[in-house]
Specification:
Elements: E1 6-8, H1 10-13, H2 18-27, E2 32-35, H3 62-75, E3 78-87, H4 97-105, E4 110-115, H5 120-136, E5 140-144, H6 154-164, E6 170-174, H7 175-180, H8 185-189, E7 196-201, H9 214-220, H10 232-238, E8 245-247, H11 252-256, H12 261-274
Parallel strand pairs: 1-2, 1-8, 2-3, 3-4, 4-5, 5-6, 6-7, 7-8
Length: 277
């Protein structure tokens, strides 16, 4: 049986208001979104004059939360992944309690976290506390690795999960981060399926472009699946057959240049389906 497991990640549309997003994602034939409680900080990413959407806040606007829940109920789209939860030296994850309450209220299935905390010991302690907070609220907890983060490859993510305790955390596997950190399709194929919590699909060159910071490339300039060098069809085949896959293809220059977001989403969904997602 074919499972419709595709979703659209926040970076792909660069922070569209949630009700509009839910309706567009449903029209694209997808069933999930990744969600934040507020818009993308585009000025922080170097685009202070790019304002594609009106301002919005799910945290401060109860009416908007009600409208989003109604839109999700009408369309069958749900928040597969709650984003915006980071371990860092400048914060305590206990401060995320209200945000997690709101994600649970909105029906989020899972919550993702990354760590930019230099200390591995503190990273483990904070991730364990966050796992407790997420699981207590009835959601799944995933840990995302990336070459520039403290948890920087698949092996380090699995080590963090082992430290936290089996069943309390799973790994989020982003295609770009996996292959750029030295991982392979074979590494994914041998994993216990129960430890894989989510996947994010994009394409990229296998070797980083010279002179482009990794964070900037990952956040603003990925490629439509099938147009780069990553072995995506094989990677998708190695994932659990019912695993949700979020399409994460930020292409901000194309959007700034006038590409309609709806067209961009249609393009990446078509490409993902062609690869077997």
């Amino acid at each position: 049986m074919t499972v419709n497991r595709l979703g659209i990640e926040n970076l792909t549309h660069m922070g569209m208001p949630p009700v509009e997003l839910v309706k567009l994602v449903a029209a694209s034939g997808c069933t999930g979104i990744s969600g934040a409680l507020g818009p993308m900080p585009l000025a922080m990413f170097g685009y202070p004059d790019f304002h594609p959407y009106p301002d919005w806040s799910l945290e401060n606007d109860p009416a908007l939360r009600r409208e989003m829940k109604a839109a999700m109920a009408d369309t069958g789209v749900r928040i597969e992944l709650g984003e915006g939860f980071r371990v860092g030296a400048d914060r305590e994850v206990s401060g995320y309690a209200h945000g997690l309450d709101l994600m649970a209220e909105l029906g989020a299935v899972r919550i993702n976290a990354v760590s930019m905390e230099p200390s591995l010991e503190r990273t483990y302690d904070q991730l364990a506390l966050l796992a407790d907070m997420v699981v207590t609220r009835g959601m799944i907890f995933t840990i995302e690795f990336a070459p520039m983060n403290t948890i920087n490859n698949l092996a380090s993510a699995i080590a963090a999960i082992d430290h936290i305790g089996k069943g309390r955390a799973r790994v989020l596997i982003d295609a770009m981060h996996l292959f750029r950190s030295g991982g392979s399709v074979a590494d994914v194929a041998v994993l216990d399926p129960d430890v894989i919590g989510y996947a994010q699909l994009c394409d990229a060159p296998m070797v980083a472009p010279e002179g482009v910071p990794y964070f900037k490339e990952a956040t603003l300039a990925r490629m439509v699946p099938g147009t780069g060098e990553l072995p995506l069809a094989e990677w998708i085949a190695a994932l659990p057959a019912d695993l949700p896959i979020g399409i994460e293809v930020p292409m901000i220059e194309a959007l700034v240049g006038g590409l309609p977001v709806a067209d961009h989403i249609a393009n990446v969904v078509k490409a993902a389906r062609a690869l077997g997602a």
